[in-house]
Amino acid sequence: RTLSDDYIKFLRLAQYLITKSGTGIIGMITNSGFTDGLIFRGVRKSLLQSFNQVSLFDLHGHGRRGKDYLGDENVFDILVGTAIVLLVKNSKKSKIVNRSDIFGSRESKYKYLFDNSFSLIEWLKINPHPNLFLFQDFDSEISEEYEQYMPFLNIWGKGQENIDRHNIYGSGIKTQQDEFAIAFNAEIIQKRIHELLSKNMTEDMLRSKYRLCHTKQWNFTTARHRLSNLDWESHICEVTYRPFDIRWTCYLPDIVTNPRPKVMAQLINNQKNIALLTTRQLGTKSWQHVFLSNHISDMCVISLQSREACHVFPLFQASEVIGKQNNNNLLGKHEFQENNSNFNKTFVMQIASSLGLKWCFSDSGNLDHGEIGPLDIFCYIYAVLYCPTYRARYSEFLKIDFPRIPISS
Questions:
Q1: Among 107, 135, 146, 148, which has the highest number of CB atoms less than 10 A from its own CB?
Q2: How far apart are CA 156 and CA 400, in angstroms?
Q3: 384 vs 151, 159, 288, 301, 403, CA distance in Å?
Q4: Average pLDDT of the chain?
């Protein structure tokens, strides 16, 4: 959906026309999301391949990501940050990527733009990130060091995102109707569902009382019909809603519209398991986005910003699901084996080898026996992500993708 934004279509149209003519200049003022968003890395790569010179003047003014600087305002009455992009295609073989940033009030930005021309702006020549093609400058020495670390998603499952996402790990649950679906205790959830099922209750009446989901993922009539034929009370369970804030929900798709069943099945009613929660991208200034949970977890546990959605990485997986897991039975019955961790086998063997230890399949290894186990590695990762030196040294990289983990020796 983000890639279908009109400004991306106009950028592509302009790129096509200039490429066809062989030479030309594009000048646009756009949403600045394409300059650093992960989903736009293909857009950035294509622009870098097509044009000899890319000049980005970032006007900032992000209303959704939080303020980069106090007092920073948007040049328009909108929430998304903006940028001026100038793209030049000619016969020269050299490639130049320039960047300049401005922060402050709307009036100060207007004045700067009015008083300066392209040649007067202080441009910073940058070397875009080699894999993400970000229009940002990075310390090359630190970048090379950080790139040697293990990519976070390679640590889990088969180390292949297209296979592991939604199976081994994934986003937290999303009810789209928290006012109705999330409560401080189980009794309140029971009361609300009884209200929904009451013959005297109409949809308008329930919507006047609670902010219910307005998308196609939830339907009042369908929810009433299905819940009335289910033992829904057995699906009431605890949920990690915010840091240190455990609440209650009814874990059925007629209450929780995006339940992420395959990921949450590893945590439901299983107090022995534990999950690491973190984000993929940062919308705020500093990275501090990591937490733990032993319950199903909301996608806003770590942050309320949509860009910082919570991703859930359970340590152990369900070795077997007894009974069919479907819309009527998200909980199912799960058997857990503590030697069935979600860690990628290549990763754990690499760590064990670098430490000169044997891999132990149980929770924790016994150092007296020269062992290391899943919980030991899990705790190591959590400790690394809480290390102040790690966060400070790699702050620019933590903003743009999942963290990378150094292999200790």
A1: 135
A2: 19
A3: 14, 20, 12, 20, 10
A4: 89
